[in-house]
Specification:
- There is one protein chain.
- By secondary structure, this protein is an all-alpha fold.
- Among the domains are: about 130 residues, Up-down Bundle (Four Helix Bundle (Hemerythrin (Met), subunit A)), CATH 1.20.120; about 70 residues, no CATH class.
- About 75% of the residues lie in helices and about 0% in strands.
- The protein contains 35 helices and 2 strands.
- The chain has a two-stranded antiparallel sheet.
- Strand 1 and strand 2 form a beta hairpin.
- Helix 15 packs antiparallel against helix 16.
- The longest helix is centred in the N-terminal third of the chain and has 32 residues.
- The radius of gyration is 35 Å and the shape is elongated.
- It is a multi-pass membrane protein.
- Pfam families: MbhD, MbhE, Proton_antipo_M, Proton_antipo_N.
- GO terms for molecular function: antiporter activity.
């Protein structure tokens, strides 16, 4: 049985949202010291969740739930296991240093408080994603990460590039979120499970069902867009328009891994199928190669790191798609390593830009003496990224190579991993070495070491990567094993060591990777020039495709608007009645809901009289020479209905019908005489035929619908209720009046409000007057002043 999490846990989960509320006020009050105080929030969250590490490493899980929307089974529930715990520790731990880093990076910025607020909102949303147990709650937090990242990417909203990048990220990830929503609803509908714990306890509910394919595609739509998998990879590098703290937090360590988290979370119920093990490795491998090749083309440190982030996410998806226990172990290890070294390197890039005035590696050099601490952090993080000992990246690379060798198409998957890692080695070396070694280059700003707020994060994350490798056995026991258990559905054996037990193929592949990386680093200028030529030859890509898609969408919306909103009342009415006819008739024919044609009844003489009145009224409308006569004739139909009510024992309804018809005729006549309309309808014959067809279709639809309804068995339960309780509860003998005034009095009030509002609109319409533009019109007197706007 899952133990219940304490109230402190709930406070820890909600704490970032409280911090977001007070961050602007606290920043204004404490100014430069605000970051130190605000960083206590994620630090305390981190410390709290470390208390679960021991129990979770022994297979324990924790949960808590509160009813939120009980009618639909939506609970505010959380679930802590190895997978969610490691993500939580990464979010809160790295988040602590990001808050400190933002305090130094945006020191003196007028909107620093707002920036802190956005960061905490995102932190809370990301914690909600990885800790949510209820599927609907997970989706809500998922979309909140998209919204908060939109705010963070577009923080510098005065720049067009920032606005475009924010909009692009929102459109792509928001669209994927809609796919995820459809997938979540389909899962709930198919399995009946609203929570992840229930779903994970029934692993064949999805995998063994008939709806596996649509669920698979929809879940992939959410995961691929969030984790920037090809062909949705373009939004992540563009998001580097955001301030560097955003890049270091959202787009390396947390948000972009939400898609990977989702795939890992769903692996026990969707993985280990032919479709899963084909699509994920394919797209993941393509993303890995595209990301690393595009990274080699860049000279901006942040863009180089951004494209390698795309590549690393592709590697994680590829490994997750193998469904191999060893490959999944490598994926878990690499996820941890990547979060540490990439967060550190992004902060290094920001520090270099902040202190030297540029991030372009071709304009940097010799900064090692001026920025020794930053260089040390960059070197350690790059060693981990390159997969060299004694860092956690080395162990992750060894394990993932061992895992890929044992899967189907293992040679191809391993080759892709080796090439991708070799390219990442070259990029890591370029980012860590080019700006710091060699001859000193004059930079836009006098370079010097940044304050502790700027280098504390890179140093801490780089050293954590070192410590995780030096104490590899403990890392595997406390973090990797429990997380892998969440993916596999059982407790695996994880025994990690920094020094390989023997010389084998994984170690040889590591040596090949390093050799390839060194060669690519030495020839990086040549590779960059080649990539520039290739991209110029292609000339078109997903990024430009996004702009063209948005342009096409806007063009389509413009065309639809101009086609539908033409400014002619006649067109609007035609559309309304045409859609009404479709809505009435199509379901009847498609659902085989056509009624049986009844026998012709034996009318009594007064019933024949009412029918004759209705037919005469219809003939009068059709034969009317002008609009006013047609309007007056239209009231005859309503009077016929009123007579039916009167003769069949409903005098109150009859009186109401008489009043409504009389008032309608008066209002219509009054309005028609005030509008600039021709006395009669002189439309072309073709237009009259179309209108006639639509009119007949609407009338036929109403008739068939009413006939279908009346042929259904009559349920007297509601009538019996009103008859039984009208006198007892409402103290009225007239049941109709009691229903209108008491049982549905609020509805009646609403109807009265609608009638009053309609009357006010009619009054406003008939009082609209056109402006006279010439002195000659003034002599026309009252008629010119009263002439209203034309209604076509």
């Amino acid at each position: 049985m899952t133990p219940v999490a304490t109230d402190t846990t709930i406070l820890a989960i909600l704490a970032p949202f409280a911090a977001a509320a007070i961050a602007p006020v606290l920043t204004k009050a404490l100014k430069h010291n605000a970051a130190w105080v605000l960083a206590l929030v994620p630090a305390l969250i981190f410390l709290h969740f470390t208390g679960f590490v021991g129990d979770v490493s022994h297979g324990e899980t924790y949960g808590a739930a509160w009813q939120w929307v009980p009618t639909y089974g939506v609970n505010f529930s959380f679930f802590i296991d190895g997978l969610s715990l490691l993500f939580t520790l990464l979010i809160s731990g790295i988040g602590t240093f990001i808050i400190l880093y933002a305090g130094g990076y945006l020191k003196g910025h007028a909107q620093q408080g707002r920036f802190f607020s956005f960061l905490f909102l995102f932190m809370g949303a990301m914690l909600g994603v990885v800790l949510s147990d209820n599927l609907i709650t997970l989706f809500i937090y998922w979309e909140l990460t998209s919204i908060t990242s939109f705010l963070l990417i577009g923080f510098d909203h005065l720049r067009a590039a920032s606005r475009r990048a924010a909009l692009q990220a929102l459109v792509v990830t928001g669209g994927g979120g809609l796919a995820l929503l459809a997938g979540v609803l389909l899962i709930i509908g198919v399995t009946g499970h609203m929570s992840l714990t229930e779903l994970l306890a029934d692993p064949e509910a999805i995998r063994g069902g008939d709806y596996y394919l649509p669920i698979f595609l929809l879940i992939l739509g959410g995961a691929f867009t969030k984790s920037a998998q090809f062909p949705f990879h373009f939004w992540l590098p563009n998001a580097m328009e955001a301030p560097t703290p955003v890049s270091a937090f959202l787009h390396s360590a947390t948000m972009v891994k939400a898609g990977v988290y989702l795939l890992m979370r769903m692996h026990p119920v969707m993985g280990d199928t032919t479709l899963w093990m084909t699509v994920l490795p394919l797209f993941g491998g393509v993303t890995l190669l595209i990301g690393t090749l595009l990274a080699m083309r860049q000279t901006d440190m942040k863009l180089m790191l951004a494209y390698t982030t795309v590549a690393s996410l592709g590697l994680l998806v590829m490994l997750t798609g193998t469904s191999s226990e060893k490959a999944l172990e490598g994926a878990v290890l690499y996820l941890l390593a990547h979060s540490l070294f990439k967060g550190a390197l992004f902060m290094v890039a920001g520090t270099v830009d902040h202190e030297a005035g540029t991030r372009d590696i071709t304009k940097l050099g010799g900064l090692r003496g001026a920025m020794p601490v930053t260089f040390a952090a960059a070197a350690m993080a790059a060693l981990s990224m390159g997969g060299l000992p004694p860092f956690i990246g080395f162990i992750a690379k060894e394990i993932l190579y061992e895992g890929t060798l044992g899967v189907g198409a293992g040679l191809l998957v391993t080759a892709v991993a080796v090439v991708g890692n070799g390219l990442m080695f070259a990029v890591a070396a370029a980012v860590a070495l080019k700006p710091f070694i060699g001859q000193k280059v004059d930079t836009p700003k006098h370079a010097h070491e940044g304050p502790i707020l700027l280098f504390a994060g890179p140093v801490a994350l780089a050293l954590t990567g070192l410590a995780a490798a030096l104490f590899a056995h403990t890392t595997g026991e406390l973090f990797i094993g429990p997380m892998l258990a969440s993916l596999m559905g059982h407790q695996p054996e994880v025994d990690l060591h920094l020094i390989p037990a023997h010389v084998g193929m994984p170690l040889l592949l590591s040596l090949v990777t390093v050799a390839l990386g060194i060669v690519l680093y030495l020839k990086i200028d040549t590779v960059r020039a080649l990539m520039i030529q290739v991209l110029a030859a292609i000339g078109w890509g997903p990024d430009k495709g996004f702009d063209q898609a948005i342009k096409g969408l806007v063009g389509l919306a413009t065309w639809v608007t101009r086609s539908v909103q033409v400014g002619w009342m006649q067109t609007y009415m035609t559309m309304v009645f045409a859609m009404t006819a479709i809505a009435l008739l199509v379901p009847l024919f498609l659902a085989d809901g056509l009624p049986n044609w009844p026998d012709f009844p034996e009318f009594r003489f007064f019933e024949w009289g009412i029918l004759l009145i209705a037919v005469v009224g219809l003939g009068a409308i059709l034969a009317a020479a002008n609009r006013l006569t047609a309007i007056v004739s239209l009231g005859i139909q309503g009077f016929a209905v009123a007579l039916i009510f009167m003769l069949f024992g409903a005098p109150d309804l009859s009186f109401t019908q008489f009043m409504v018809e009389t008032l309608s005729v008066v209002i219509l006549a009054l309005v028609m005489t005030r509008l600039d309309l021709a006395p009669a309808d002189h439309r072309p014959f073709g237009a009259s035929v179309v209108s006639g067809i639509i009119a007949v279709a609407v009338g036929l639809g109403v008739m068939l619908t009413l006939m279908s309804i009346t042929q259904q068995p009559f349920d007297t339960s509601l009538s019996d209720f009103f008859a039984q309780y009208a006198r007892v509860i409402a103290h009225g003998r007239n049941i109709v009046n009691v229903i209108i005034v008491d049982f549905r009095g609020v509805d009646t009030l609403g109807e009265i409000a609608v009638v009053v509002l309609t009357g006010l609109c009619v009054l406003a319409l008939i009082r609209v007057k056109t402006k006279t533009t010439s002195a000659q019109d003034e002599g026309a007197g009252e008629e010119a002043l009263a002439k209203p706007m034309e209604v076509k």
